[in-house]
Amino acid sequence: MDERVITQKELTKTRRFGRFTPAYKLDAKTVVKTDDVVRFAEAEAMKLVREKTSIPVPEVYNVYTDPDTGHPGIVMEFVEGDCLADAWKDFDDNQKAAVIEQFRDFFYLYWICRRHSLRRSAFTDNLGGYGPYKDEASFTKGIATTINGSRNGGYINTVCDIVVNTLKGHQIVLTHGDFSPRNIIVRGSKVVPV
């Protein structure tokens, strides 16, 4: 296990992935993700998924608090491959079907909350902010509280009412908070790491 704590000075000598990704490639095998939007819960979720499922996620080597910024840092495996968002346009129908079939094995329930980050309000690093929730009703209330905290108005109140009154009787499963082609790495039509 790589127990490194990456300093801000070291980060200035590395390459950042994209404008919106707080991840930096340290070497051929290692990436660090650190910023005010990074959460310790992300590393714990990746460890859990890697240990308990066959869903391909990078190995987490170390998690720490950056001594200069106070932000969490996650040191993890670098996964070689192509971003699905870039590769998709070049896939034929069979390759697209192969990728989709892999996702059927990975995900059963997926919620998209457009334009409202679940990092706010009920979903913070405050004790209990990510749960555990005792039941589906308290989890759903947390979602509505987060949405309601993002903006005020009739539309938001309506969305919150819909969430609370319709999200009932579902099996709760762990899902990726930003599941999209830009967050998926492939080699050919194989989702990696494997």
From TrEMBL:
The domain of life for this entry's organism is: Eukaryota
Name of the protein described by the UniProt record: Uncharacterized protein
Classification lineage: Eukaryota, Fungi, Dikarya, Ascomycota, Pezizomycotina
